[in-house]
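Please, is this right?
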Amino acid sequence: MTDIREYKLVTVRGSKLLMTGSRMALTDELVSLSLRPAIDVGPDPHRKPLTEAEVEMLANRLLQESTGAPLWIFAYGSLIWKPDFDAVESQHGSTRGWHRSFCLQMTRWRGTRSQPGLMMALDRGGRCNGIVFRLADDDRLGQIRRLIRREVGTIEDAATVRWIPVATAHGLVRALVFWAGPKGERVSRKLPLETVAQVLARACGHMGSCAEYLYLTVKHLEERGIRDRNLWRLQKLVAAELVAIHGLNTAAGSH
C-alpha cells in the first residue's frame, strides 16, 4: 500500500528535508552530501576490456538475433533517465521472473577499490516493471554498438545481455536487456536492504555516487508512475544513513 500519511519536514542547515511520508526521503541535498571528487584509476587489471573486434562481433550477433523485427530495449535503471539510443516509442512494460537488485560489486564509475559500490542488475525471481523503448530502424547496428560500449565492459559481461519477453498494454514484445543474471565473484545475492543502504550511502566514484544513482532511478520511476517497493524502502534507508553519517539529526534538533 502507498503510504499516504502526512509527511514531516525538518529544517537542516537552512533547507527543508523530507524525512517521512509518501514523498521521497532521499533528496537533492542529501544526495549532494554523498558526492566527492574521485580519480578514475582505469579498468580493473584482472578484467580485460572488450576489444573493438569483440564489440563488433557481439553487435552483429545481436543484430542477427533481432531478426529484422522491431528492436525493443527493456530499461529498468539508468537507461530510463539517461538513454544512449534513438527511441521512436516508449511504453510501460513488465517482465516476470526478474527483479531489480543491487547485487554487483563495482570498484569504478560509482565506487572505488577502497570503497566499492553496488550496481543494480536484474536477478532471478519476482517481477520487474520498467519502460520498453523501440529503437529507430536507421543505423540499428550503430545503436547496438553504442549500447554495448556503455553497458558491457568485458567479454564475460556479454553473458548478461539477453532477450526477454515483456508484457505491455499492446501485447507481448521481445526486448533486449542488459545485466540480467550476472554471475561471478563480484555478485552478492540476497543482501539485506540495510547492508545495501550502508554501501550506497558511502560509495562514490568519478561518475558520481551510488546514492545519486538510486535517487535518480527512483525519481524517474515515480515520474512514470512506477513504484518498486524494494527501491522505495531502500531510498528511505539510504536517506537515514546519510542523515546519520553527516550528523544531521543533531543539527535538526537544534532548530
